[in-house]
Amino acid sequence: MDFVDKNSQWYPYQKVQTNNFNFEQYALFPRHICDYLLDAPKGDYKPKDDNSYSRCRLWKYLYHDGAKPLNQKLPTIQQKLSVLFNPEKATEPPTDKGYRLIPQSYIMQAQETAQTRIYVHLGRAIAQQDDNTFCISVIFDILTHYTYELNTKADEYSRSGAIVAALVEALNGVNITGIGTFSMSKRVHPDCGTRSIRDNNQNVGVELIMGLEMATTTDREFTENTNMTFYNKSGTIRQV
């Protein structure tokens, strides 16, 4: 006799352990992180053009290629969105700035001009089934053209180093979507840290790895991200 409910998602097998362990948020976080880093205006909130704010410094170092980037204006949301990777037009960025914030792992891309890029992707996941949590490593590959790495003429001599510092300040201890908290501690994730990287071509930089500790049960009310970016059917970026 078949005792398994035919409406069960595990039919014809039986789920014999009842816990709330799942990876529901795993694939969503690269996009959530990029949306947070975009620091878009929303309602009464407007990002400040103030270098004491980490995401302000991040965008100035990422967007402005020349010397003294912190003396430049904070890019507008339209300028930020123009350099956010659009998978619909992967080889056709809308401006000569190219794509600079890319929610996927590094791949060699056609590069006609010098630029700085941040690739955001996920690494190892370490599960803790006893308390229904897991920690994933979030990897930031910061690569900049070798002619831009040391041209800042600022106290932050290394452009990629300045971006790493801004990322850590922007993320460490921050809870995203109500269930995931960033940490720069190896006690949270053993892969946390930095190392120098290069693409064996014309770009150098730093790989930053942070831990993201996540609960595996969620309240849907706290997982809705209302500050996300979207694409029109034509492939242009719009904000909702």
Helix content: 10-25%
Mean pLDDT: 84
Structural class from helices and strands? alpha+beta
Largest sheet features: 7 strands, mixed
Topology, number of strands: 9
Strand content: 15-25%
Query: Shape from CA axes?
Result: elongated
Radius of gyration: 20 Å
Tally of helical segments: 5
First and last CA, distance: 53 Å
Q: Which segments are poorly predicted (pLDDT under 50) over 5 or more consecutive residues?
A: 218-228
| Series of secondary-structure elements, N-terminal to C-terminal | HHHEEEHEEEEHEE
Concise overview:
The protein is α+β, with helices and mostly antiparallel strands and 240 residues long.
List the helices and strands and how they pair.
Blueprint: H1 29-38, H2 54-63, H3 77-82, E1 101-102, E2 116-128, E3 133-145, H4 159-171, E4 175-176, E5 180-183, E6 193-198, E7 203-215, H5 220-223, E8 229-231, E9 237-239
Parallel strand pairs: 1-2
Antiparallel strand pairs: 2-3, 3-7, 4-5, 5-7, 6-7, 8-9
